[in-house]
Automatic annotation (TrEMBL):
Stretch list, region Disordered: 10-32
Top-level taxon of origin: Bacteria
Gene3D superfamilies: alpha/beta hydrolase
Keyword field contains Chloroplast: no
Protein family according to the UniProt entry: Belongs to the peptidase S33 family.
Keyword Hydrolase on entry: yes
Pfam families cross-referenced by the UniProt entry: Abhydrolase_1
Protein name in the entry: Alpha/beta fold hydrolase
GO molecular function: hydrolase activity
InterPro entries: AB_hydrolase_1 (IPR000073), AB_hydrolase_fold (IPR029058), Serine_prot/Carboxylest_S33 (IPR051601)
UniProt KW keywords: Hydrolase, Signal
Organism listed in the record: Actinomadura rubrisoli
Length: 385
């Protein structure tokens, strides 16, 4: 994910930022008329994109109370005469910036879609530029993310538990008033407000990873307001928090085997000559890194097992990253240089060169904990979903 783009609501600066004629939206729920009937003011924000802000209530049970600002971006439909409406998108996470996703990926959508739909992204409540949840400083996240999350002994278990409790306490201290309201149930209600505010009678939506869960949640709450949903990499909405982690781990294992099978077909693969040998080599490498973290040439951080795993996982999301992963593992295994693995890890958690972070990690934890509270006992993590 890219760094967050700060957005502001201003008046349209050109005719391209005006409102299109749209089919009247469905009626607003009682007490929420002012939110459903709002008309965001779009402004040009570069690259053919338009940006705006919309308001939603912090607590839907108290619509006259505190409000949140949601940041929006859109790439207008190319052919306004045949325009169908808005294609709302969510890239996953939770915690991923929908604004940055559209800015980076909108032009990758098919020509037919771009011709007839505005490609719309938004930062969900608590994320990115939408009144973000902030719990930890950069140094605090550095320490948390470097801590071994697959402890092998009591000392490592205690260290991981202490860091996790510290993370939770930081959120309680700095964001306690926001935390109860950042879950998926409220985010889905926000989408319905945005749908109406943008003039769409029914929702057309694309979601990936966690975005599939958000889309499914919306469909359950507002079934009559759905036009079409495309859910890419569907998350099981019934799975527990630990169950989701286990399924994600299985997915990474499958992806790593695919990478390994590709790597060993070429000379110079640092993992050996077969997929099984590659997996054994990786197991040994990570065990060694757990005992002796790697150095890096970018800063003073040590590349621990946790950071190495994160770097590997980042590159497994896309086949296009496999050459980078091969190079990173070659440097790490043959030269004990973890620089490239750390660079990949930093990309996943949106760590900036100055040591600061976007709020992705804080938001991810906050939303997940609201949606699917984690077990409070360490023993429960060893029993499966």
């Amino acid at each position: 994910m890219a760094t967050v783009l700060a957005l502001a609501a201003t008046a349209c600066s050109s005719s391209s930022g005006g409102e299109e004629k749209a089919t009247p939206a469905t009626s607003a729920p009682g007490g929420l008329e002012s939110f459903y009937n709002q008309k965001p003011s779009w402004r040009d924000c570069g690259g053919g994109f338009q940006c705006a802000k919309a308001q939603v209530p912090l607590d839907y049970r108290k619509p006259s109370g505190e409000k949140l600002g949601l940041s929006l971006i859109r790439l207008p439909a190319k052919d306004k005469s045949s325009r169908i409406g808005s294609l709302f998108t969510n890239p996953g996470g939770p915690g991923g910036s929908g604004v940055e996703f559209v800015r980076q990926a909108a032009t990758s959508f098919g020509a037919d879609l771009r011709k007839r739909f505005d490609i719309v992204g938004f930062d969900p409540r608590g994320v990115g530029a939408s009144d973000p949840v902030r719990c930890n400083t950069g140094p605090q996240l550095d320490k948390f993310l470097a801590t071994d999350s697959s402890p092998d002994d009591q000392q490592e278990t205690d260290a991981f538990a202490a860091e996790s409790k510290g993370f939770a306490q930081n959120c309680k201290t700095k964001a306690s008033s926001e935390l109860p309201y950042v879950g998926t149930a409220n985010a889905a209600r926000d989408i319905d407000v945005l749908r109406a505010a943008l003039g769409d009678q029914k929702l057309t939506y694309y979601g990936a990873s966690y975005g599939t869960y958000l889309g499914a949640f919306y469909a359950e709450q507002f079934p009559s307001n759905v036009r079409a949903l495309a859910l890419d990499g569907a998350v099981d909405p019934t799975a527990s928090s630990t169950g989701l982690l286990i399924e994600q781990a299985k997915g990474f294992e499958t992806a790593f085997r695919a990478f390994a099978e590709n790597c060993v077909k070429s000379s110079g693969c640092p993992l050996g000559t077969s997929a099984d040998a590659a997996i054994a080599k990786m197991t040994s490498f990570l065990a060694q890194t757990d005992k002796r973290p790697l150095a890096n040439t970018r800063d003073t951080r040590k590349v621990t097992e946790a950071l190495a795993v994160m770097g590997i996982a980042t590159a497994l999301y896309l086949k296009e990253y496999w050459p980078v992963l091969r190079q990173a593992l070659t440097q790490a295994i043959q030269k004990s240089d973890g620089t490239l693995l750390l660079t990949l890890a930093d990309q996943m958690v949106e760590r900036k060169p100055d040591g600061s972070y976007s709020n992705q990690t804080d938001a991810n934890m906050a939303v997940n904990c609201v949606d699917k509270p984690n077990p409070s006992s360490l023993a429960e993590y060893g029993t499966g979903p």
